[in-house]
Amino acid sequence: MSGKQRTATYPVGDSYVSEGVIAAASSGPAAPGPAGEPGEPLLVVEDLRVQFTRGGRRINAVNGLSYELLPGSMMAIIGESGSGKSVSSRALMGLLPPTATITGSVSFAGRELIGMPEREMRELRGGDIAMVFQDPARSLNPTMKIGAQVTEAIRLHSDSDRKGAHARAIELLRMVRLPAPERRFHEYPHQLSGGMRQRVMIAIALAGEPRLLIADEATTALDVTTQAQIMELLVELQQRLGMAVVMISHDLGLAASYAQDVVVMYAGRAVEHAPTATLFGNVRMPYTRALLGAIPALEREPHSLFEVTPGQPPDLSALPKGCPFRPRCPNALDRCVEMPPFREHEPEHWWACWNPVGDETGNGEQE
Amino acid sequence: MTTAALPQVPGTRDPRVSRTSRVTRFAGSPVLRLVVKRLLMAIPIMLGVTVLTFWVLSLIPGNAAQQLLGPEATPEQVAQLEEQLGLNRPGYVRYGEWLRGAVTGDLGRSIVSNQPVSDLLGERLPVTGELVLLAFVVSLVLAVPVALLAAHRPGGVWDRISMVVSTAGLSVANYVLALILVLVFAVQLGVLPAIGFTPLSEGLWPNVRSLILPSAAIGLPLFCFYARFLRGDLVDQMQQEEYVTTARAKGVGSWQVLIRHAFRNSSFGLITVVGLNLGALIGGTVIIEQIFALPGIGQMLLQAINTRDFIMVQAVVVVFALVAVVANLVVDLLYAVLDPRIRYGSR
Fold it and tell me: What share of chain A in percent tops pLDDT 90?
C-alpha cells in the first residue's frame, strides 16, 4: 500500500480543527527548514552507535545504524525486542541515561544532534522533534491533571500566557479527538481509558508543532480496535500537519499498512530498507523473510506449523563476527564471517547481505 | 447548559464539581467512615497498650508508697501508705478503676503529687509538641533541598557529599549529637543556652532559641534519614518512570523534571515515613528532654516511672499511643489530598 492510496482512504476533514492550527501547520512544519530544500532528507542517521556499560560489561545496543527520512513522510522501523529500534530513537533525542556512549552522526534539518549542548537539545525536544511512547498508562504523570501536562508542553515552546495555552490545549485535545476536552482538561490520567491517554500523549507531542514525530511502539499497549484508531489519527495528523513520522514497531502488518518506507533492524543495525511495497514485494534480506514467515495468515492451512526462526537474538555484549544473523540464517555462506555492507543494491532498496533471498547462487552477490 | 444536560461518562465529574472535589471528598461520607473506623480501631490498641504498661509496671520492684517514703521507712509505714493510696488492692481492680475514669475523660490524679493528671499534661504537652514540630521542620527543610540536589546528578559531587554527611549523621545517636551541640554552641561559642526552656509567653524568639539545640539534636539524624530516603525515591522515579521520559521529551529542563514531576510522586513515600516516625519520635524526646532539662512529657514520664506513679505513666502512654494512631490517620488522609488516584471508598 502506498502513501497515495492512503490519502484516499483517510480523507481529511476540517470539522474538528480550527483555522489557527491549519495555518500554523501549513506555514510551519510542512515548509522546508532553513537547511532543507524540498526533496532533501529531514533526518539523516549515519553510522549511529550506542553502547551501554553495565557492571563492566559492554552492551552494543546500536551498531552502525544508517537511514534517511524525507520531510512529511512516514517511516517504520521494525525489529524484535533488543534490536535497537527504541534505543536509537531515544539516542537521537538525547533521552538516554548517562551510562550510554553515543557515536556517529544524526543530522536533523542540517543540524547535528549528537553532541549538541543540552540547552539547544531541550529546545528541539518537544519542539521540532516530539515523541509518543508505548505505554500511555505509565507515560503520563499520574499526579498531574491532563490540562497541566498539555499546557506545560505548550508554554515551553511558545510565549503564550496561561489563557492562550489553555485555549491551545483544548484545541490540541480536540484535534486528537479526545471526547469532551474541556472536561478532560481537569481530569487525571487514571480517569481516562488507554486510547484516550494515548490521544493526550499525541496532543502533548503536537504542542510544539513538530517536524518529526517519533512514535515508539505507540499502539502496542492498546487493543486492536483502538490501535487502528490511533494509527489512523497519526496518519491523518501527519498528512495535515506535514510532519514526518518514524513509527517504531515490532508489528510488520502495522508497518505494511501505514508506512511509506520500512527499515528492518537486527542486532542494532539496519539490515533492509526500502519503500513498503518494494520491501514486501521483493524481500531480499533472509531475516526479513523469516519475520514475514512468522506472521499468522488467514490463507494458511489450519494447524500448519509457523516458520519459526531457529535460535535467539544475539547477545549484544558478545556479537558474533561478521553478520549477526549468520548463526540463524538459512542462507549463510562462509563469506558471512565478513560483515556485509548496508548498501543500495537496487534503486531505493538497501540491504546488508552477501546471499540475499531471490538470488541464492551459493556464492552470494559479488562486487 | 444545565448540569442534567451534560452527558455523564461513568467515573467522571462535572468540571464545576471537580473544582471543589477536595472539599467534598472530605465532607463526604467515605472519608468520615475512614476516620470513624480508625478511631474505633484505636480502642483495642489503647486497651492493649495500657494493660501492657500496667502489667510491666507491676513487675518492677517497689511501688509508689516505698518511693514516697524512701529507703528509711519501716514496713509498717509502707503498708499504711499503701492502704491509704489503695495500692494493696489487686492489679486488675486498680486497672479497672483507672479505666472507668479514663473512659469518662478523667485520667485521675498523680499518686505522688495528687495533682490532676490532665493539668500536668496540659502544662507539658505543648513543650514536647513544640520540640517535635521544630525537629520536623529542621529535618524536612534540610532534607528536601539536599535530596533534590543529590538526585539531580546521581553519583555526582553533591550526591557523594550528601551520602557521606548523611551516613555520618545516621550513625551518631541523638544524645551524643546533643552533647556535641551543647559543647560547640553553648560552651565554646556561647550563642545558645545549654539547658532550660523559655515559654512562649516570654516572647517568640527566646522561646524558639531555647529549643534550637534540642530540636537540632532530634532533627539532624532525621534529616540524614529523610535525605537518603527521598534521594533514593527520586532517583528511582527519574530512572524508571516513563512519565519522566515524557517530561524530558517535552523539553522540560532537568531541574523542572525533578521538582515538578518526580518530587510530587516521591513525596508519598516520604510522608509515610514521616508519619510512622512521629510515633517513635515522641518517645525519643524522653532522652533529649532529660539532657536539655525541658519540662516536657518525656521528662514527666521518666519521673513517673521512677516514683512508680502508674497513673501518670498510663496517661503519658495513652498520649503516645494516640499520637501514633492519629499520625497514621493523618498520613492516610494526606495521600488522598496529594494522590488523585486515591479516593477512599469511592470505588
Answer: 37
